[in-house]
Amino acid sequence: MFSFFKSKKNPADSTETPVSPDVESESKPEESISFAAKLKQGLARTRQNLGKQLSGLFGGGKIDEALYEELETILLTSDIGVSATQQLLENLRKQVKRDVLTDSAQLKEALKESLIAMLEPLAQPLDTTTHKPFVIMITGVNGVGKTTSIGKLAKYFQTEGKSVLLAAGDTFRAAAREQLIAWGERNNVTVIAPDSDPDKKGDPAAVIFDAVNSAKARGIDIVLADTAGRLTTQLHLMEEIKKVKRVVAKAMPNAPHEVLLVLDANTGQNAITQVKAFDEALGVTGLILTKLDGTAKGGVVAAIAGQYPENPPALRFIGVGEGVDDLRPFDARQFVDALFD
């Protein structure tokens, strides 16, 4: 039922699979820059949208209600969201009163620090040392970049010295299987996938069940399990993914140990709806926010934080480019600095 794919092939394993054109090419060595610089570059559209307006507002002048109203409009149109905007304005008013600020030019740094304080609870690094194998289930709606994120995560964990196994649990989309196999070949990682026969798509829960057992037998550190994309309104598919999670727990108690929801930054406020729906179905433990380099809606990070002021979800990773190394752990101060500077 299942196929094992390895980058170093034995004729008995499988036929050679070409790299899918859907898999992004790695950055060229001469283009290599620090992630802080890459983040600033990736957030250029958001910074241009937000920063340009704030520069005009904070150019000097009286701090009054008109300024607060204009700032509110700027934050809302930058996809920061109603809840986060209200929290930021409330914090600014308190700081203005406490520090006796009188000139609007003083508000830029105050806003930055308030935004960092709001986002820092999201910056919770993922600890994969608690179980072996550590099973990570990847989910999300169609087209957000789940499979690509898995390939990049595999590379990231390998740089940490971890061994990785991939499970091609998106059995409904043939391209997803091929794309994951291509990532496995690139990273020299074994991929457990369903039969390539389109008439034998296979059960996604069974694929991941088999992958977990294989990882246990081989002493693998991390299992990254892909799942089929689904809309939050497709209730039958949401029920199916609950089944996948239950079956994984049968292969290994308490697994999956992490349920990562992949969000496309381009969706803006709709990301909040996705977080709520998938959390209700699966108990989401962490988020991956992709495609920040292609949108002016980077403020959605604050919107997520503002929606959960008491118990914010962990924003584990953000993606700011097409390179294999462009998915990195979220750092609140680094993110805000890239937004403003």
From TrEMBL:
It is found in: Cell membrane; Cytoplasm. The keyword 4Fe-4S does not apply. It comes from the Bacteria. Residues 133-341 form the SRP54-type proteins GTP-binding domain. One of its GO terms (cellular component) is plasma membrane. It is a peripheral membrane protein. Involved in targeting and insertion of nascent membrane proteins into the cytoplasmic membrane. Acts as a receptor for the complex formed by the signal recognition particle (SRP) and the ribosome-nascent chain (RNC). Interaction with SRP-RNC leads to the transfer of the RNC complex to the Sec translocase for insertion into the membrane, the hydrolysis of GTP by both Ffh and FtsY, and the dissociation of the SRP-FtsY complex into the individual components. Part of the signal recognition particle protein translocation system, which is composed of SRP and FtsY. SRP is a ribonucleoprotein composed of Ffh and a 4.5S RNA molecule. This is Signal recognition particle receptor FtsY. It comes from Nitrosomonas oligotropha.
